[in-house]
């Protein structure tokens, strides 16, 4: 490709609305342009990278035995009603109606469509297992699209779905996809880690996220500094305190204290001169329209994903003021567990806790010296809190560290969630009808590109790994008006093309400094500079974008040198 012929509108200025490096650099490098909020056009340079990632994904999915299909982007509401997700999915589901007033959605994912397809085509265990995948554009109506293609409404995704007859087969399908994902992200040149994760709206019994470490990541990644345990913040387990660890103090009598206009933990601690860990928060949630009181220490936060999984509910939200008043007899800020009129669940850290402060279930009052075993009836203790930096690892007792990360892939064990809801069955060896056991496996194609930039850039621009770079090498003649230089650059370009090297020739009539800056901005791994000084002794300079190393090599061996540099990565 010749630079002068390529649609490559680079810019010097950083767009004011671009917050993170990948968004800024993709705009500046002429890779994307915004059409509407969270919706982007991919220009030639950006689309070349997208295709590189897609090709790696295809190769590894095919290697793992999956078969490629292409499913409709527009999906009928009836399928989503079968699965129960039409009303549950939320406002992220973009709903539309056709001219006949029938409801459809623009697919954010394809569990319903693939399940409907397979249930109509597979009848017996002899037709299983199957793993089908596609690479397609999805749409999720994010409330706040941001960070360019990192969190956009329209995005490229690879989604795969496995169907098995047995749990053992489902485990094997999951393992194959897990291993394929490790190969995919390794080939993309990413520093990543698979972590245990919550399954969220997709559902299922178990899942892993593949997280790329990056300071700009929206997600928190929890890992042990001593063992291999890793999880996202929603899934990370908190170790149960040792029995009797907090027991032994004398149980003091309850004491009601007047606390006018004192509602928050900070206000309670200041007014009563106690530490946050000596206060217990009572929070009222609506679990499928039923109130539940959840207790956690004042210095901890409730992990709503853990709570929802523990309760096994479809919807979970904090109660409104009128419900809090009905359940506790008090306004918000004074709720406590003593005498409360609903189910009570407490975090493990409260088991055996003594002489703590709770709300008085009476406006402007709190109660001191509450004891869990004496003053309120609950035998329900669970891991409900958010893990914190420095906590003990639930596996080995080592120290927990929390870093930022970007989710680029997710693998799920769906079980029979969708096959039961949509009656996707098969006949087993004994002629008995059973539900297919499913798995679901997604990769954000466009997000993977953005994550790579977040992890690999500098003050001058993008630093692409060789495997997904839009071009392997850029030839930069320092002066196209010099006939000797331009002729040498053209001859080298023709040789590179003939040798199968992905090359761009910067044949613009620009100053050398401008060309060097653009080459660094778009991140091509190798830059071959053709100048009069080098030509005088038959050499050119090859600069490696990542390391900054410069090699002076004979023109006659330039193609072999570049080919070697590409294949050595």
Summed up:
The chain is α+β, with helices and mostly antiparallel strands.
Structural class: alpha+beta
| β-sheet strand percentage | 25-35%
C-alpha geometry: globular
Rg over CA atoms: 29 Å
Describe the fold and architecture.
The chain is α+β, with helices and mostly antiparallel strands and 569 residues long. The chain has three domains: 278 residues, Bira Bifunctional Protein, Domain 2 (BirA Bifunctional Protein, domain 2, 2-Layer Sandwich); 128 residues, YbaK protein (Alpha-Beta Complex), CATH 3.90.960; 98 residues, 3-Layer(aba) Sandwich (Rossmann fold). Helix content is 28%, strand content 29%. It has 16 helices and 31 strands. Strands 3, 7, 8, 9, 10, 11, 12, 21 and 24 form a nine-stranded mixed β-sheet that branches. The chain is globular, with a radius of gyration of 29 Å. It starts with 20 loop residues before the first helix and ends with a helix. The mean pLDDT is 94.
Fold topology:
Elements lengths: L20 H8 L3 E5 L2 E4 L1 H20 L3 E2 L5 E3 H7 L1 H4 L5 E4 L5 E4 L4 H11 L8 E10 L14 E11 L2 H21 L4 E5 L9 E8 L5 E6 L5 E3 L22 E4 L6 H8 L7 E8 L2 E8 L6 H8 L4 E3 L2 H8 L14 E5 L8 E4 L5 E6 L1 H4 L5 E2 L17 E16 L1 H5 L3 E3 L5 E3 L1 E8 H11 L1 E2 L2 E2 L10 E5 L5 H16 L4 E3 L6 H11 L3 E5 L1 H5 L2 E6 L5 E5 L3 H11 L1
Helix pairs in contact: 1-12, 2-6, 2-12
Summarize this structure as a short list of keywords or feature phrases.
569 residues, 3 domains, 16 helices, alpha+beta, single chain, YbaK protein, 31 strands
